[in-house]
Amino acid sequence: MADLDTLRAALKPILDVAKSLDASSPGAKGALEEAFPLQSTAMQSLRALVREGIDGGWLADRESGGIRFSRVQKAGEENLSVDAVHMDRPGPGHTHPEGEFDLCFAVSGEPRFDGHPEGWVVYPPGSWHVPTVSGGVMDILYFLPSGAIRFEPKP
C-alpha cells in the first residue's frame, strides 16, 4: 500500500528538475513537458499514485468549500513545497510571490484548469489568479518555490 513517503519518493525527479527552473522563463513549461511528458510511464504511475492517495484518504484529506487538499511536503532542500488538491470548481484567489508549477491530472469529464487541459501549467512570480477547474474534476500537484503563496483578493 502506498503512502506519503512513496509519493515523496516519486516526486523527487520532478523536484530535482523544477528547483532549477525559473518560473518567469517562457521555456519553463516546455522543460517540464520534455522531462516529464504526461503520457510517459512515470507520469502515469504518478497519476495512479495520486489517485490512490486521494481515494485512500491519506492525500488531500482536508476540505474547504468542496475542495480537498493537503501539504505533501514543505519547502526543504529542493526549495519547493508541494500541495495536492482535488477540485472541480474555483478555489481561493492567491498570488505567487515566486511563481508556481502545476501538474494537472484529469479525473473525470473534460476538465480544464484555468482554461488549460491536463498537463503542466506555469505561473510567473507575482502572478495572481483564482485557480479554477471547469468541465470536470482534476487532481493537481502545486509546486511552490520557497513554499511562497499569499491568499488574497485580486491586488
What does this molecule look like?
This protein has 155 residues and is of the alpha+beta class. It contains three helices and nine strands. A six-stranded antiparallel sheet has the order 1-2-3-8-5-6. Strands 7-4-9 form a three-stranded antiparallel sheet, with no helix packed on it. The mean pLDDT is 96.
**Beta-strand residue fraction:** 35-45%
- Net shape: globular
Query: What's the mean pLDDT score?
Result: 96
- Order the strands across the largest sheet as they lie in space: 1-2-3-8-5-6
Q: Point out poorly predicted stretches.
A: none
Q: Could you give the order of the helices and strands?
A: HHHEEEEEEEEE
Gyration radius, in Å: 14 Å
Largest sheet data: 6 strands, antiparallel
Measured distance between first and last alpha carbons? 44 Å
Helix-and-strand structural type: alpha+beta
User: What is the total tally of β strands?
Assistant: 9
Instruction: Kindly state the percentage of residues in helix.
Output: 25-40%
SS field, number of helical segments: 3
Compile the SSE list and pairings.
Blueprint: H1 4-18, H2 28-35, H3 41-56, E1 62-64, E2 67-73, E3 80-87, E4 94-96, E5 100-113, E6 119-123, E7 127-129, E8 133-145, E9 150-151
Antiparallel strand pairs: 1-2, 2-3, 3-8, 4-7, 4-9, 5-6, 5-8
Brief description of this entry?
This protein has helices at residues 4-18, 28-35, 41-56; strands at 62-64, 67-73, 80-87, 94-96, 100-113, 119-123, 127-129, 133-145, 150-151. It is α+β, with helices and mostly antiparallel strands.
Features of the shown structure:
alpha+beta; 6-stranded antiparallel β-sheet; 155 residues; 3-stranded antiparallel β-sheet; 3 helices; 37% strand; 25% helix
